Amino acid sequence: LRIASFDLAIIGVAIDPQSTTPKHRQLYARLREAVLADRLHAGDALPSTRALALQVGVSRNTVLAAYEQLLAEGYLVGRAGSGTFVAPDAVRERFRRTTTHADVSSGGAELAPMAKMLDDLRIRLPYPLAPPRAFQIAAAPIDLFPVATWARLTARRLRNTRHELLSEREPLGYRPLREAIAAQLRNTRAVVCGADQIAVVSGAHTALFICSMLLIGPDDAVWMEEPGYSAARGALRLHTREVVPVPVDAEGLDVREGLALAPAPRLIYVTPSHQFPLGSTMTLRRRLDLLHVAEDAKAWIIEDDYDSELRYDGRPIAALQGLDRSGRVIYVGTFNKIAFQGLRIAYVVLPPSLVEPFTAARYFVDEYPPAINQAVLADFLVEGHLARYIRNARVACAERQDCLLMRLKRKLGHLVRVEASAAGGFLVAGLPENFDDVALSVALGGAGVDVLPLSPFFAGRPTRRGLLLGYAAVELAAVRDGVDTIARVAADMHR
Ligand SMILES: Cc1ncc(COP(=O)(O)O)c(C=O)c1O
Question: What is each CA distance from 413 to 25, 105, 312, 401, 429, in whole angstroms?
Fold first, then answer.
């Protein structure tokens, strides 16, 4: 074990007391750079907060805040009672490749407040396209995706492409695809819509960003699920200071709590079919309460329906949008999860009053995915290939979930709480309240298993700890090996 000799040369430039960037952010950035530039190595021990505070000339709380951030992001790992260390090499490599930050300090040129906000949000790009490892989150068994059919449909489209497709520029996306989506949503999700209300976008994030831009101003209150999907929180946070974390329980978003915290929201973000990350389904009572609140407050609701295609209990849940009588629910869905991440085709069902503003805004932000891919997807839907794939995916994913549950109970029953999930492609394995789920996930990354810790999905103080385990894209043998690795690493951590 090497104790890092912590002089200011390692941390880089000293902290600038004149800067508008808070000192803990400066220190965080310096330490992160040192890790990424290999000036600090895997396993190096960091000085105590007290020692570093003295050396750098800041308060201990400043150092503590910087350490906590680096721990949460996986650059550092903490071992109870024995200090803080630079995370293992493999993990550091992954973060190096996948973490992007708008480098606000570069070049001396000033960036606008939104760019600074992006830096604060610490947007992390998705994993590189490696073969999926246990337990990356996916909403479909990508190993079973009918690639040959997709290739055949693509070749056919390219062979027969007419002038219209090559010069296609429908402002809301390829019309036949929008018609196919509208038909599917009406049939399977009880969404009330026509093709004219559907905009094809490249990802759910794009839809969330454009909707936030159109619907909220910098002081508008927005209800956000707590815990909730960090990327959605980010899109909202870029447009308002007032993102209010509203607790989620077994019935979904706690509407009464929301009213107590912020009685007049302008926008409400929910994942009612399968709450991300806790996995609950919003009850009908809550759905009606929520619509009622939105009507009273003249608020918009974004319904993020990211993985509802996979339901195992045979009872498809109707979308919240279908219950809405006053045109305030915006329904967002995606093919990137149920088909494949690299596809980049998602969609938004807009209330009629939003179609025009959305069309104008998307012209500047992001037009739409390539027309050829949209046409191939339209064929894939209309010819029934997607429905067939979803039927196969359900069977495979149910089996994978069972296997994961059984193995977790057998190998980790003493430590984790798990319950079967009626939908989606991941399970939450609850950990004891004092368990450091971030440190466990970092250690697991080093051991070849990807899990997301639950606690960072809280905007405020985490009230639960756990691991999110994606099983949809993980074959049975890898599910078993993955759980065995978790059991081994968790036991080591507790020794
Ligand atoms: C809750 C939730 N919404 C939306 C998305 C993103 O979908 P897309 O890949 O279409 O941007 C995800 C992806 O992980 C998600 O978990």
Answer: 40, 47, 23, 16, 10
> How many CB atoms are located within 10 Å of the residue 418 CB?
18
**Using a 6 Å cutoff on CB, does residue 268 contact ligand 1?**
no
C-alpha torsion sign, points 438, 236, 303, 369:
negative
Q: Write the CA distances from 1 to 42, 45, 67, integer angstroms.
A: 10, 8, 20
How far apart (Å, rounded) are the C-alpha atoms in residues 184 and 391?
15
pLDDT, tens only, 436-452: 999 999 899 889 899 99
Q: What is residue 45's DSSP assignment?
A: B
- Give the number of the atom of ligand 1 that is nearest the alpha carbon of residue 137: 14
Q: 124, 273, 331, 337: which to mutate for ligand 1, most atoms within 8 A of CB?
A: 337
**Ligand 1 center to 337 CA (angstroms):** 7
Task: Give pLDDT tens digits for 266-315.
Answer: 999 999 999 999 999 999 999 999 999 999 999 999 999 998 888 998 77
Distance CA 240, CA 265 (A): 12
pTM of the model: 0.80
